[in-house]
């Protein structure tokens, strides 16, 4: 396999590999239950993208396209990507796998919003992300970061 | 001062004390800017509640009432409280200050939703919170926990 970003399919092998990521949570548990209960088919699409080195999944992220009608971040209001669970396994850090995933997300040429984990701001800044102006009723406990392709601006408050 | 939960007012002293909490972020920075620019008055209300020991703020949380029309968690749809940034300073942990804050939030007798930090599930379980059934389009990267007073149920999917 090549070190390229690929869309991950829901199956027992992928879900097993997910367990090595720190941000394993309700999302993965719910995918596992849906698979076990035949609510989703084996190898159905997931919102996850990942990078394999050999047969090992060593980096991943989730991407979801939010419809323009729910957009509270950009001007004009438009479809944007919510990016979460970006994570590279410890042994593979510092080799630009995180950047490869972010570049992949940017390639859709839609604005991107993410909620960074504590202490990850340096990374996101290098990726060209900026703090969204904080609005309590929208952001509550979040510290959203946004990235905008040419021609898109942040919504005014 | 007594060890009681009190509503925190926005002023330079409180904002300075906030810096000792790990989850200091955009919300606090934005409050500081609003104060400096006279967008909010000194001692205006904040969504934060806290506990003082002597003159030291040693625990805090944010609470915000979300209107029933945005409720995607409970049955019947109703006003609920979003709780975030619950945090007790390290030297004061294990003395039930966290529980005091959660009990205060429960005293409004509204359902509560929170997004726990990694490794805090044990605490929330003791507080009677349960995992909300994961819905990707609603929860994305979140692992929401909910608490319901008598007579309230989780929304069906």
TrEMBL record, chains A, B:
MF terms (GO), sorted A to Z: acyltransferase activity, transferring groups other than amino-acyl groups
Broadest EC class assigned to this enzyme: transferase
Keyword Transferase: yes
Keyword terms of this UniProt record: Acyltransferase, Transferase
EC number: 2.3.1.-
Superkingdom, taxonomy of origin: Bacteria
UniProt-listed Pfam families: Acetyltransf_1 (PF00583)
Tagged with keyword Transferase: yes
Domain N-acetyltransferase: 8-153
Regions crossing the membrane: none
Cross-referenced HAMAP family: Acetyltransf_YlbP
Name the UniProt record assigns to this protein: Uncharacterized N-acetyltransferase GCM10007063_06650
């Amino acid at each position: 396999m090549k070190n390229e970003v690929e869309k991950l399919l829901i199956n027992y092998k992928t879900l097993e590999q997910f367990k090595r990521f720190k941000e394993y949570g309700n999302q993965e548990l719910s995918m596992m239950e849906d698979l076990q209960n035949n609510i989703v088919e084996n190898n159905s699409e997931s919102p996850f993208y990942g990078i394999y080195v050999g047969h090992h999944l060593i980096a991943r992220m989730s991407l979801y396209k939010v419809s323009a009608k729910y957009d509270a971040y950009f001007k004009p209001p438009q479809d944007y990507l919510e990016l979460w669970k970006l994570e590279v396994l410890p042994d593979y850090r510092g080799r630009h796998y995180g950047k490869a995933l972010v570049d992949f997300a940017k390639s859709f040429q839609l604005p991107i919003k993410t909620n960074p984990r504590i202490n990850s701001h340096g990374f996101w800044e290098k990726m060209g992300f900026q703090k969204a102006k904080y609005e309590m009723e929208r952001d509550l406990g979040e510290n959203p970061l946004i990235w905008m392709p040419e021609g898109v601006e942040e919504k005014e408050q």
